[in-house]
Amino acid sequence: MDSTTPVRIVLVPGFWLGAWAWDEVAELLRGQGDEVVALTLPGLEPDHSARGEVSLDDHVAAIEAALEGDRPVLLVAHSGAAIPATVAIDRHVDRIAGTVWVDTAPVVDGAAMDASFEGDAMPLDAAWDDEMEQGSMRDLTPAQLDEFRSRAVPEPGGVVREAVSLTDDRRLDVPATIVCTAFSAAEYRAYAEQGMSFLAGLLEHRALTLVDLPTGHWPMWSKPVELAAIIDVAARAAAQR
User: Fold this and answer.
1) Which one of 7, 81, 163, 216 is least enclosed by Cβ atoms within 10 Å?
2) Nearest alpha-carbon partner for 12 in 89, 70, 69, 72
3) What is the value of pTM for the model shown?
4) pLDDT of residue 84
5) Please, which pLDDT band fits residue 1 given cuts at 50, 70 and 90?
6) Alpha helices by DSSP H, 142-205
7) What's the mean pLDDT in 46-69?
8) How confident is the model over 2-13, as pLDDT tens digits?
9) Close Cβ partners of 92 (under 8 Å, ≥ 6 residues apart)
């Protein structure tokens, strides 16, 4: 029997990362019969020479290109990739069978990661100490931390500071799974209700499922088997719609 899921899974990594960040998860999903595409967004190539010229819309366009094809898509976004991913969904809601948000959430109209950011790019080293202190690196091995630091690429500044424009409220009915890692599902909801701007989308989205996966902010490395299983379940549910 053919076990292939009739949706294509598009994996979008968060800040500082390329497609390589999904290698283990992608392999596990393909082993389950899933069609998988992992993206390296513009400006996140190791040899990119002009990161200061990369815009948020460049990231959106790269995701839009991955939505093309005959199959509907399960779009998986990690961390800061939620910003361009939400825009891509807004523009192509009919192509999206479902979404998975990995320690992140769909954003609201006008959202930006940091509208006050100045500079051509944001290097990982600028955030490393804060991420360590906040527990974001929980469950990562020394080897994984070393690889992360050695392969991380500065995030284009335009992507950090530019705000989204959203126009199609149908995006709010696209089935969404929120994978809650650094915080629990209950904490996610509480923080949204308390006014945390990056989680504001939780309050307006109409088709949410929150799933707890206790670990740090990069579960594709710390809990790849568990994360792949959650994504695969979402893909198979999307295939039934």
Assistant:
1) 163
2) 89
3) 0.96
4) 98
5) very low
6) 142-151, 157-161, 185-193, 201-204
7) 96
8) 456 789 999 999
9) 64, 67
pLDDT of residue 127 exceeding 50: yes
CA-to-CA distance for 74 and 177, rounded, in angstroms?
A: 11
Q: How far apart are CA 149 and CA 230, in angstroms?
A: 27
Cα separation of 10 and 172, whole Å?
19
Take residue 218 and report the two structure tokens written for it: 């990069």
Mean pLDDT confidence for 88-106: 97
Structure tokens given for 157: 């500044």
- Residue 35: beta bridge partners? 8
Query: What's the pLDDT tens digit per position in 173-217?
Result: 999 999 999 999 999 999 999 999 989 999 999 999 999 999 999
Q: Which distant-in-sequence residues (6+ apart) come within 8 Å of 21 by Cβ?
A: 13, 38, 78, 218, 220, 221
Structure token digits, residue 123: 């290097």
Order across the sheet with 208-212: list the strands: 35-38, 8-12, 73-78, 96-102, 176-180, 208-212
As a whole number of angstroms, the longest Cα–Cα distance in the chain is 54
H-helix or E-strand spanning residue 241: none
Please name the residue that has the structure tokens 């944001």: 122
**Among 56, 117, 130, 116, which Cα is nearest to 86's?**
56
